[in-house]
Amino acid sequence: MFESIYDQLNRWGKDDTFFVRIIERIKPDGIADLGCGTGRLTLHLAGKGYHVTGLDPDEASIRIAKQKDTKNAVLWEIGTSEKLGAERFDVVMMTSNVAQVFVTDAEWTATLHNIFQSLRPGGYLLFDTRNPLARAWERWTKEHSLSEVVDPATKANIRTWHETTSVHLPLVTYDTFYENLDTHEVRSEDDTLIFRERETLRQDLLAAGFQQVNIYGDWEFQQAGLHAKSFIFAAKK
């Protein structure tokens, strides 16, 4: 991934605002942002006075996040849920559909277990995921996903887009293309995401030990309907 252009492609949105609103209601002390990427939301929460740890397995993303953290407000760690530890946090969050990268049941179960163990009693896991009924992958085409940005690292003009290549539900594979408009070089990478159903996820959370599971829909504080585009889970230990 072109980590240096991630912030240009993923600017602050209603999803970020919604997670901030949930956290303001919970009033946590310690927060872990699992899959924090380059730290957009992580740094915002630290700026509001929360004690935040940002974890991501991608070393380049953490490096960029640290460069933006001029006040050393966040504890940054390279790693996965295995690094969360025991009863350290009041909230663990996975935003930007990070929950969909755990494509095997074993990965997902292990991640939920690690998160549950890392939460203090009464703590919350917060995450969002796309509703498979909304069929988001049908809009992962060049026509609907094309963007152009300037890479701040190289000053190159970059055109990027997605193309779905395989749909075998619950798994969807797609390519992301990066075209350097100055040299006409094109690079690509492929990713696979899992589209779990709402009830499947609820049962997974209960099996992991969570006692209360709220499911919001489309960035509103109302229970998710069957045809919501996004599900936002708030699971309490």
Summed up:
This protein has 7 helices and 12 strands. With 237 residues, the protein is an alpha/beta fold. An 8-stranded mixed sheet has the order 3-2-1-4-5-12-10-11. It has a 4-stranded antiparallel sheet with strand order 6-7-8-9.
Provide the CATH top-level class of the largest domain.
Alpha Beta
Total individual domains:
2
* Biggest sheet architecture: 8 strands, mixed
The largest beta-sheet arranges its strands as: 3-2-1-4-5-12-10-11
Distance between the ends: 34 Å
Kindly state the number of beta strands.
12
Quote the CATH topology of the largest domain: Rossmann fold
What integer is the average pLDDT?
Answer: 96
DSSP summary: helix tally: 7
Under CATH, the homologous superfamily of the largest domain reads Vaccinia Virus protein VP39
SSE succession: HHEHEHEEHEHEEEEHEEE
Structural class from helices and strands?
A: alpha/beta
Q: What would you call the shape?
A: globular
Report the helical percentage.
25-40%
Rounded to the nearest angstrom, the radius of gyration is 18 Å
Strand content: 35-45%
CATH architecture of the largest domain: 3-Layer(aba) Sandwich
pLDDT < 50 runs, ≥5 residues: none
Keywords: Transferase
Domain Methyltransferase: 31-123
GO molecular function: transferase activity
Protein name: Methyltransferase domain-containing protein
